[in-house]
Amino acid sequence: MKRSLMNRCLAITLVVLPLLFASGSVALAQRNPDKELPLKQMLSLPGRVVSEAKTARPTGELKLTGYRVEELQLPRNLTVQLHGQQLTVDKAWRVTVNGGPFSVRAMPAVIWIDDQIVGNGIENETLSQITAITFDSSLIREGGVVSLSYGEDKEARVKISQRLQLKREGGNQ
Amino acid sequence: MTTRTTSRILAFFISLLFFSTLAIDTAFAQVPDPGTPGPLAVTREEYNFGDTAFQPSNFPGPVELRASIHYPTALAGPYPVIILLHGRHATCFKGGSQLLQWPCTTNGSQPIPSFQGYDYVSEVLASHGYVVVSVSANGVNAVDNFVFDLGALARAELIQKHLDILNGFNTTGGSPFGTKFVGKFDLTRVGTMGHSRGGEGVVRHYVLNNDLGAPYGIKAVFPLAPVDFNRFVVNNAALNVLLPYCDGDVSDLQGVHFYDDARYNVPGDTSPKHYELVMGANHNFYNTIWSPSSPFPGAVNDWLAFVPGGHSDSQCGSGKGNQRLTEAQQRGTGLAYMSAFFRAYVGGESQFIPILTGDAPPPPSAQTNNLFVSYHAPANLRFDVNRLLNDTNLTVNTAGGAVTQTDLTPYELCGGDAPQPQRCLPDQSNARQPHTTPSARSPLRGLSQLKTGWNSITGNYRNNVPAALGNVSRFQAIQFRVSVNFADARNLTDLAQDFRVVLTDASGSSASVRVSDVSSALYFPPGEVGPVPKVVLNTVRVPLSAFGGVNLNAVRSVQLTFNERLQGGVLITDVAFASAP
User: Fold this and answer.
1) What's the rounded Cα separation, in Å, for the pair B61 and A38?
2) In angstroms, rounded to a whole number, what is the distance separating the alpha carbons of residues B57 and B549?
3) What are the chain A neighbours of B251 within 8 Å (beta carbons)?
């Protein structure tokens, strides 16, 4: 179970993230930048809130206070690899965890839904939010549990007790 | 047994311990302490070309060009150069709040000077005739999570840029120093130390500098409590990794991969590799700006702040009897081993090498003896008996000799390439088995290890040495790496293991040495909470001079004889004859 999860995450990491991130690796130097969408841009795209929760009091050592899941309509289609398959997508999902202030650490923050990794988190400037992007719609499921860890250590996750309650409709944010 | 008899036995063992300690102390009394201040007066200055003066390639933000420079005030030279690079931390602060932005644009905010956190090392090294430059990297920290390699290349390019700046100071001079540094830097002798993500940064820089045709002579690389997301490797330069047992941030000690990956990566690699496992040390105390005594926001004891329930851990926590080092003690270990390493391998002061091989105890400046040194000898100073890399090595060793075992169970390899199981302790978290912890940006597997154990004192692991290779008299020691497997119930909690190393020669003469007489590496890994206990394989080096009566010109086998405890379980690798550089 653990191994298949890791393999899956690795596949997503190796293929999806290079499409998002402006990086200097040799492999990335061969990309067509016109077909990519920088992660910074995806963090600021308007989104439709599909689920949101606030906790009654800060949760765990990370003092989590809630989350927000938004559906993003991409300005252009992207080709990504999910579960070993090349797919063209026009949507992404932005998962933001609130709380903190979060420490700036060597180990990257990782956002989970249930036992699946959504992605590595990006802190905002005031360290009150951590955000990750996914193209995998299957992660956004009714009743899912959002949690946060540093590194991919399942045992160290802090979970938000309010489960995902998906809205069928929502306004632009 | 009467009380009197017990007292006599106790007295005997205390005497034995005293004289053993005396013998070791006497043998290494000539090893000076590399961490004591030297004779030279030191000047500290900074240069700052602006918060946005540098743009790493394909990186989403600008980076500052700011650094401190410690140098001998008399400025004779040319001096070897040491570059220090801090890791990921908040970049700015306003009042008591930390911020992650660059430059510090929030009204009234100021930079957190993480690069000043190693001045305690810079001052000592400069006083011995080194130029030490500590680089600020807040601009990298602010946006490194946006890029795939998490900032490794940006950090490498930043170091290279500072070396270019130093090269300018050294050749033509330049603002703000004029010509005073012209001819004062020896950029053919450079050492680099990086902390945390900076640790991976200095490794990535070593590769980058080589890719650029090695314009600077990087002789020694020291990742301190490093991440290793990308699995770059240092070969043909001295390497030293420092691993804090109570690291609450990089709690899986993934930086041990730097050592493990480098060992057999390049045939004929003539560089030494080392690591120190520092018990009771955390991640942040090596940087004074990140430590609780600092006035800056974001300075925390990472074990207590980041590990859920960490306060209660008997080794790393805050309760009575904990084994934590103070800030000063912990920095003592950093100072001692950084100084020994750079002075040995950049400055050529070879008298410090016994500290790095574990042949000499930690020097007084380390302020603790509770650390474990591992050492991988250069290819020309090493004879690999058994690298334990694949299943073949369970029956035929690297030297071509037969391998046999008696009454060992299990007797299998784990942690290395498939088909080995990825982890050696399947029911334990990755943080508790650093040698096999996965890397965020690499599919590479971890360290191949022999997982074994015994249920009676007849347990034995034997590596035959082919007759043609049996002359080992040119080596100093037989060595291997080992950890007690805390997840094996045959080991009793908190009780150290023990066994014997046996050499046998062509005439059948044998001699054995008990591991506990030469090393304390067979400790039971301490702690109970989160990332601890953890298995870290530490080197046991047994001097060949201890095997009296064995003809070292004709050794025929190396055995580990498990007859000192009724049962137990261990992880083993890297069985070799070896000498110090």
Assistant:
1) 13
2) 62
3) 107, 151, 153
C-alpha–C-alpha distance, residues A95 and A68, integer Å: 6
Contacts with A6 from chain B: Cβ below 8 Å: 438
The answer to whether B544 and B472 are in contact (CB under 8 A) is yes
Q: For residue B340, what are the contacts with CB-CB under 8 A and spacing of at least 6?
A: B34, B35, B352, B353, B355, B356, B363
Q: How far apart are alpha carbons B289 and B300 in whole angstroms?
A: 10
Contacts of A21 in chain B (CB under 8 A): 146-148
Burial class (CB in 10 A: 0-12, 13-18, 19+), B214: exposed
- Give the model confidence (pLDDT) of B8-42 as tens digits: 444 444 444 444 443 444 445 589 999 999 999 99
**Inter-CA distances, B187 with A59, B33, B77, B428, Å:** 52, 26, 12, 46
The distance from CA B374 to its chain's CA centroid, rounded to whole angstroms, is 7
B201 has a chain A CB within 8 A of its CB: no
The rounded distance, in Å, linking the Cα atoms of B146 and A39 is: 7
* Strands ordered across the beta sheet of A158-159: A116-120, A109-113, A146-150, A158-159
- Residue A41: pLDDT band (50, 70, 90) is confident
Prediction ipTM score? 0.90
Question: Which residues have CB under 8 Å from A57's CB, separation 6+?
Answer: none
Q: Which tokens go with B374?
A: 């591992």
Which residue, B567, B565, B563, B514, is CA-closest to B542? B514
Could you tell me the end-to-end alpha-carbon distance of chain A, in angstroms, rounded to an integer? 37
Query: How far from each other are the two terminal CA atoms of chain B, in whole angstroms?
Result: 49
**Contact (Cβ atoms closer than 8 angstroms) between residue B433 and residue B423:** yes
Please tell me if residue B88 touches chain A, with a CB cutoff of 8 Å.
Answer: yes
Q: Cβ neighbours of residue B272 under 8 Å, at least 6 residues apart?
A: B238, B239, B345, B356, B375, B376, B377, B378, B580, B581
C-alpha distances out from residue B93 to A134, B52, B141, B336, Å? 31, 18, 14, 32
Please state, as a whole number, how many other Cβ atoms lie within 10 Å of the Cβ of residue B108.
8
Residues 6+ apart with CB under 8 A from B299: B284, B289, B290, B291, B292, B293
pLDDT of A2 above 80: no
Tokens for B168, please give them. 């300018």
Q: Work out the pLDDT band at B578, boundaries 50, 70, 90.
A: very high
What pTM value is reported for the model? 0.92
Q: Are B335 and B124 in contact (CB under 8 A)?
A: yes
User: Which amino acid, B120?
Assistant: Y
